[in-house]
Amino acid sequence: MPTPPAPSPVCGDETFSYAVQRGDTLWRLVQVFGVSMESILKLNPGLEADNLQAGDVICIPLVPTPKPVTPAPKPVMPAPKPVVPAPKPPVVCGDGTFSYTIQREDTIWKLAQIYGVSVESILKLNPGMESQNLQVGTVICIPFAPTPKPVTPAPKPVTPAPKPVTPTPKPPIVCGDETFSYTLQQGDTLWKLAQIYGVSVQSILKLNPGLESQNLQVGAVICVPFAPAPEPSVTMPITITPPTITGPTITAPSFTFPSITSTGITPPSFTPPSITAPTITAPKITYPSVTSKSSETTTTKPTTPTALPTICGDETFPYTIRQGDTLWKLSQTYGVSVRSIMDLNSGLDPQNLRIGSVICIPADMEPPVQMPTQPPAQPSTQPSTQPQASTDTFLYRVKKCDNICKIAKAHCVSVESIIRSNPNMQLYCLKEGTYILIPMNRCQGSACRYTVKCGDTLNRIANQFNLPPAAIMAANPNVDFENLVKCQRICIPKE
User: Fold this and answer.
1) What is the C-alpha separation between 143 and 117, in angstroms, rounded?
2) How high is the pLDDT of residue 141?
3) Bigger pLDDT: 255 or 143?
4) What SS3 state is found at 154?
5) Which residues pair with 244 in a beta bridge?
6) Peptide bond into 237 cis (omega under 30)
7) For residue 453, what are the contacts with CB-CB under 8 A and spacing of at least 6?
């Protein structure tokens, strides 16, 4: 039940009732009505001076009407006595009103706002008052503000409490063969789990349909496949001991001159030279040793190795793993993503890169200076016709339907630079399987890489980086700036 409103106090003579407004304080009422704080507290026992509630009705004493003061007549020369104006009768305000003495800077609008009444009601109670010319000290009548009727709040409709919904328990996760269950922890990601357990992110998603890789819930149970059994590792490279050839042994001829003795003359004798045929020791080939992780013994295959060199497709190049290499380091070095390297090399274990193994890397950047892995060749006395890579070139194996323009476009170099790198080859009639040299540009020191855009020239690039053209040419000794190609990579030195 709502609490009934407290009864309004009955104010006595020489007082009036006042409804407390929002923002009112006892000090403000003292200033507005020109009375003392003690007189208000005396009329309203139990009133809390620091806790006035809006809507409460309190009693306020009326301001005593000042008695008119008759000024003493000034001494003057004998003359007619001055006429003393009759004092105005004191203003008597009726019921429902109270008297108020005009203060400095008062206006009818200000008084109406303070006491919560209208300007018209004040003017109606004070006929003849000039609203634009209020005299300080003049006493006027002001009506009491109407007492607001207590508003009984409407009872709020009682909404029945919703019945607790018991969540349907999810069935436990049952993982199949060759998988195991894993409870997600704080900070887990699918990429992190794939690296830890040596599997792919796609294999985890395939086992857990509906799993959101970007919104893993801590405590959720998922299935993770077991890592595939490791393949035997091949120790590279194949060691070939060249044949040992022992030259022929030639014995010099001997000649015995005739001798004359007492018994007669000994005829001369001649021993012809003897030649021993040369001996050739067959070449010795040490084949790669295959080590199985499941056994600690090392077995040597007696058969001829059948492993072929890694053949990378278009817009890729081979790379031989070195000491300290990681997929992250290679991705930063060649400006590609780790995922693109793994997609090109199925079965590659990112946590176990083997030194000497050859992988394929997307040709977003120029490839490193590396010779492609070659199968062991039989010893031959014929000179080799295969070109030799230098620090400024790398070997490229010509594929079916390749031509010099296609190769130049794929590696972002000019046709002229390939021709200069292969002066003794017929480049306009390439045969599948042959090797040619592709020029490359490696940045030295802290130089940054720049990708040539359509319409770029040496002067335009120099103006863009505020460098002299000679500085850019010095940083790129292998670049033909007269034949720049779109997407070609050049080096920009620091100032």
Assistant:
1) 7
2) 92
3) 143
4) coil
5) 281
6) yes
7) 486
* Residue range 15-56, pLDDT digits in tens: 888 888 888 888 888 888 888 888 888 888 888 877 888 888
Could you report the per-residue pLDDT of 175-197, keeping only the tens digit for each?
888 888 888 988 888 888 888 88
Torsion, Cα of 241, 243, 244, 250 (10° steps): 180
Structure tokens at 29: 């009422």
DSSP-based three-state secondary structure for 276 = strand
Provide the pLDDT confidence category of residue 312 given band limits of 50, 70 and 90: confident
Choose among 382, 387, 371, 390: nearest CA to 423: 387
Q: Which amino acid is at 327?
A: L
Residue among 357, 392, 391 nearest 373 (CA): 357
The two structure tokens encoding residue 483: 């034949």
402, amino acid identity: D
CA distance 442 to 492: 11
Does residue 250 or residue 409 have the better pLDDT? 409
Q: Concatenate the DSSP letters of all residues of 182-207 into one string.
A: EE--TT--HHHHHHHHT--HHHHHHH
- Whether pLDDT at 98 is above 70: yes
Instruction: Report how far residue 478's alpha carbon sits from residue 485's, in angstroms, rounded to the nearest whole number.
Output: 14
Largest CA distance in the chain: 213
In contact, 274 and 307? CB cutoff 8 Å: no
Phi, psi (5° rounding) for residue 246?
-100, 120
CA distances to 1, 3, 7, 18, 55 from 150, rounded to whole Å, are: 15, 11, 11, 15, 8
Dist. CA 53–CA 24, nearest whole Å: 9
Closest to 363 measured CA to CA, from 389, 386, 393, 341: 341
